[in-house]
Amino acid sequence: xxxxxxxxxxxxxxxxxxxxxxxxxxxxxxxxxxxxxxxxxxxxxxxxxxxxxxxxxxxxxxxxxxxxxxxxxxxxxxxxxxxxxxxxxxxxxxxxxxxxxxxxxxxxxxxxxxxxxxxxxxxxxxxxxxxxxxxxxxxxxxxxxxxxxxxxxxxxxxxxxxxxxxxxxxxxxxxxxxxxxxxxxxxxxxxxxxxxxxxxxxxxxxxxxxxxxxxxxxxxxxxxxxxxxxxxxxxxxxxxxxxxxxxxxxx
Length: 251
Known about the structure:
The protein is α/β, with parallel strands linked by helices. It has one domain (8-250): P-loop containing nucleotide triphosphate hydrolases (Rossmann fold, 3-Layer(aba) Sandwich), CATH 3.40.50.300. The chain contains 8 helices and 12 strands. The longest helix has 15 residues, at 119-133.
């Protein structure tokens, strides 16, 4: 049986912001159908990794490469990565006054697929996704993230994933600032979107999101690189012992 090409391969990735090196030789592979959790303390470079994977021009790749479905995208612009099926759920999603959720989704879906749905076609598609995610239909006509609570902003990003159907979803500290109810809603949305053709990279500080979303692989990320990888038991070890138990690897 021929093994499928990984959705994402990060090979010895080194990247800097200005003169400061942040990523220091990152290696990570995500296969189809896998959920990976990347766990690390503040300042470890987790969010930088997410930004570099999506081509943020504020960061400069100085070594290594990023392969998406076997293609080298290390130098590809963010628009090309999004159109190819990569998606980033931001830690702090921006508000866009005057642009409704459904208007934003229409443009994003057009960029993703090249297909321009009518407003009615898109509304029916969005309504189906919102019903599946347990969201109120009025949500679609609100201005994007304007006046949204932290939980509503994160749920909106889960809605975007449900409509855009990315093949690789990178979630940068999606659990940040969520109360338990919002956390469960986001986790339930992620669980409903998992599938054999989609990969997830969930970036987080704590285990609490992983109480509701079970990863196939857990990676401890510190000082700009992966220190240790394992299964869900690694997250439990981290919860019990803290990050200090892994700092000895750095010395």
